[in-house]
Amino acid sequence: MAIDFTFSPEVEQARQSVRDFMTNTVKARFRELRDQEDVSRDDWSALIKSLRVEAKERGLWLPHMPEDAGGMGLGVTALAAVAAESAKVPYGPYILNAHAPDEGNMHTLYHFATEYQREHYLNPLLAGEVRSCFSMTEPEVAGSDPTLIQTSAVEDGDEWVINGHKWFTSGARGAGFAIVIARTDPDAEIPQARNSAFIVDCDSAGFELVRDIETMSGSHNHCEIRYTDVRVPKANLLGERGGGHKLGQVRLGPARLAHCMRWLGEIEMALEMLIDRAQKRFAHGSLLSEKQSIQWMMSDSAMELYASKLMVLHAAYKIEQGMDFKQEVSMAKHHVANTLWRVCDRAMQVHGALGYSTDSPLAGMLQQARWARLADGADEVHQMRIADLLMRAYNENGSVNAAVGGLPL
Questions:
Q1: FRET pair for 395, CA 20 to 30 Å: which of 231, 284, 285, 307?
Q2: Superfamily per CATH, domain 249-403
Q3: What is the pTM of this model?
Q4: What is the pLDDT of residues 157-168, one digit of tens each?
Q5: CATH match of 132-238 with 3.80.10.10
Q6: Do 109 and 118 form a contact (C-beta atoms < 8 A)?
Q7: pLDDT tens, 47-66?
């Protein structure tokens, strides 16, 4: 078995191009605007829009999509490197039109949309002309178990009528349309066949954006939505009837890994900030970097980041090769999310009061890191799935190897 952790020249060039664009163009333009006086929200918006145009002109648009969809055509493994680079800069993924939830919705529409749906919804999303949202989680039932969804969709002539209550509908404010998971077949024998997916225009009558939910890190467009007799044409059924659970899993599986890819960039940035601070801060007779307790923070963070990178690369490889990847993605999702939390926390500790203040980005990074352990499946749900697949592998083969990467050692 050949093991090669280098990228092809074409992929390495793409990674370096994104790195150069983010470092020397995006960061530099942000710095220039930040140094000006009386900068408005409109000024920031105009800058980000211009950077998106430049990203497209440079061929860095849609790194996660195939070439026939106007993307860079990168494989999943190569995408990991590009995503990590973009995440080191605020709005980096958005500037490349590779941000959540649009990224996952693009993949979903690419694989499940009809020609009509591609023309009216996917193509404008790919062009960056609209944004979208994904509406599945409900406040009344456990978000980690989509078989409990209560939002209903009932046939009425040539339309579906949707009624229900959603929250944490990511990206809803300002979105053009939502992908909504609703119950169409409540009596289906298999619980996973009870839900279907629909494309719902956000300006539809009965679509009510109640609020942008305030979280511990502020408002980040995770909205509460009420659907009251929302009428949707039958042409807006996405995928097959009863296929909502399958569609959701197809969307969320790779999307979980995409989150991990971006988190790698944030982890690396936090660790670099920790090291930089420790080598400059003098206290109690020596630099912080000379104190053993701080060195342990560095080494623990380095080992966890190393393991995170290997997990993401291996899971991406399995997706790219068409292999079963559920176990590896669950392991990566749990490990990388927790590594992000721990490394940001250590970096904040080394920065002391500065890290806790909003004068450094660490306060915001740590707040966001806590969300990572809930998004796309809480830690405990992934641990449950990991244990289930572990026992299944042992019971079927008398060995756990298939459930710990299936590696030849």
A1: 307
A2: Butyryl-CoA Dehydrogenase, subunit A, domain 3 (1.20.140.10)
A3: 0.86
A4: 999 999 999 999
A5: no
A6: yes
A7: 999 999 999 999 999 999 99
